[in-house]
From TrEMBL:
It comes from Priestia megaterium. One of its GO terms (biological process) is glycine betaine transport. Residues 1-21 form the signal peptide. It is found in: Cell membrane. This is Glycine/betaine ABC transporter. GO terms for molecular function: amine transmembrane transporter activity; carnitine transmembrane transporter activity. Residues 31-276 form the ABC-type glycine betaine transport system substrate-binding domain. Pfam families: OpuAC (PF04069). InterPro entries: ABC_Gly_betaine_transp_sub-bd. SUPFAM superfamilies: Periplasmic binding protein-like II (SSF53850). GO terms for cellular component: ATP-binding cassette (ABC) transporter complex. Its main location: membrane. Keywords: Cell membrane, Membrane, Signal, Transport.
């Protein structure tokens, strides 16, 4: 009887402890939060920022690397709780159209994110997308893109059609491979065309420029949003409130991206950023 009573008291205390949380607002549940991330520097950096913010407030956080399509599918299926990957209204429009009723799009965490074709500034006679026609042979009729299935690749292919650049091929690789090609060409002062977006640390490391897009093939600048699963929105309103409080801008994110890119441990680099910006982070998570 005493043993049964003791077991009951222990179970009761465990339930109470689980329900009460840690006093920092993380009282809804104690499950692991799964954040879906893709392999782009701005997404890696911001995901790790929030990983540390949430862990500091008593949550367990698991990060999962996926391609952009996988992030949307996983969130729609409640396998992913949060992602900071959606670029809207243009870049991820196909995904939004398909999954908009199965996910929640919260507030943007960064506004006026742009993408397009970019070239080194030393290509002085190439300033608009139409100008690519006259340098096709100089760049081996190639535009260096990123991951197959990425939204920017689809827009780049459409741009090549819109501007009748039939001789060009979009090389589908990865962000890392694209940047490697850019660095090799840049160091040798050779012409190159790449797909690019901002925020991106490349604008700090290379003197590159966007090509004007008078036909607006890449669309107007996007905002980058927080996306959550339907289930997560029901069970974690406090976390969503914190994330909707958060706003980044070029001044804040540029040094973060540079630190993450140059670090051998991107997660530690993001953690250092969180420590350095404690006052800002605390304002995001104020109850």
């Amino acid at each position: 009887m005493k043993k049964l009573l003791l077991i009951s008291m222990v179970c009761f205390l465990l339930v109470i402890t689980s329900a009460c949380g840690n006093g920092n607002g993380a009282f809804q549940d104690k499950k692991t939060i799964t954040i879906g991330m893709n392999n782009y520097t701005e997404n890696i950096a911001y995901t790790y920022v929030w990983k540390h913010i949430l862990e500091d407030r008593g949550y367990k956080v698991r990060t999962v690397f996926l391609e952009k399509a996988g992030v949307w599918v996983g969130t729609a299926n409640d396998d992913i709780d949060i992602s900071f990957a959606p670029w809207l209204p243009t870049t991820d429009a196909p995904f939004y159209k398909k999954y908009k009723d199965q996910v929640n799009i919260e507030d943007p965490w960064l506004k006026n994110a742009r993408l397009g074709f970019a070239v080194p500034a030393y290509m002085k006679d190439v300033n608009t997308t139409e100008d690519l026609a006259k340098v096709a042979s100089d760049v081996d009729n190639k535009v260096i893109g990123i991951d197959p299935g990425s939204s920017i690749n689809g827009l780049a292919e459409q741009a090549l059609k819109d501007y009748n650049l039939k001789s060009y091929t979009l090389v589908k690789s990865s962000e890392a491979a694209m940047l490697s090609e850019l660095r090799k060409a840049y160091d040798a002062k050779k012409p190159i065309v790449v797909t690019m977006w901002n925020p991106h640390w490349a604008f700090a490391d290379f003197d590159i420029k966007y090509l004007k897009d008078p036909k607006n093939s890449f669309g107007d600048p996007d905002n980058i949003y927080t996306m959550t699963s339907k289930e997560f929105k029901k069970t974690n309103p406090q976390v969503i409130k914190w994330m909707n409080n958060a706003q980044m801008n070029d001044k804040l994110i540029s040094p973060l991206l540079s630190q993450v890119e140059k670090s051998s441990n991107p997660e530690e680099a993001a953690q250092e950023w969180v420590k350095k910006h404690k006052k800002l982070v605390d304002s995001w998570t104020k109850d």
